[in-house]
Amino acid sequence: MSFRVIVVTGGNGGLGQAIARAFLAESPENFVWLGVRENRAQADKLVEKLPGRCHSLELDVTQPDDWQRAVTRILAEHKRLDVLVNNAGRHHDGLLAHLSWSAWHEVLAANLDATFHGCQAVLPTMIAQRGGCIVNIASLSALLAPGGQSNYAAAKAGVVALTRSLAKEVARIGITVNVVCPGYVETEALAAMTEEERKAAMGRVPMRRFGRPEEVAAAVRFLACPEASYITGSVLRVDGGIL
User: Fold this and answer.
1) What is the DSSP string of 179-224?
2) Strand partners of residue 67
3) Could you tell me if 136 and 181 are in contact, meaning their C-beta atoms sit under 8 angstroms apart?
4) Distance CA 112, CA 157 (A)
5) Helices marked H in 53-183
6) What three-state secondary structure class fits 162?
7) In DSSP terms, which residues pair with 94 in a beta bridge?
8) 152 is catalytic
9) pTM of full prediction above 0.90
10) Going by C-beta distance under 8 Å and a sequence separation of 6 or more, which residues neighbour residue 18?
11) Opening angle at CA 20, ends 15 and 24, nearest 5
12) Which of these is catalytic: 152, 153, 155, 213?
């Protein structure tokens, strides 16, 4: 597989790190840019380990100007951009009757607006190249919306719809756009659960275990690989069989 330039947002979290490592393992020639806003420790460790193959970008995914600066920097160094993984996001759960406007707005901005800005920022380059892959990370909450997540579920459902619409717009140009919907995965979000909450969640998973970040990363890498070039507009669940 030839050299590819990959951007992964949310590059400091467990899932972002796993996705970055999957692409780095795919080919010794791949170069991964980690989009990070704050708490850069994990991203910096990966960069220090592979300085010639990985770099971090200061990127607030909710700000279009940050996206333009990031893309300009990448193109100045590599003259191309092949894969974007819109992985950054955030929760602020609560019952809708008591949900503040800021909790609604911030979650929509971090999940849905950020995906819009990222796609829009990379599309001119991918269109000029007549090729590229975008993989958006949504959530099972987009498809099976739980109580207490009206903001997050709405944002991730919007990511699914955005993905399907954009896939139709750019299919003729050779750009694929797909979305992955993880279920319960051993990341920072699950670490905040109580033992009782973990047991209840586990009971809803037919496989009777939580997923690993590497399992989601494998799905992302597959959707972005040349062998998956006829797959676009797809919604791939990685959830252990939750119905």
Assistant:
1) EEEE-SBSSHHHHTS-HHHHHHHHTT-TTSS-B-HHHHHHHHHHHT
2) none
3) no
4) 9
5) 64-78, 101-108, 114-129, 150-170
6) helix
7) 149
8) yes
9) yes
10) 212, 213, 214, 216, 217
11) 150
12) 152
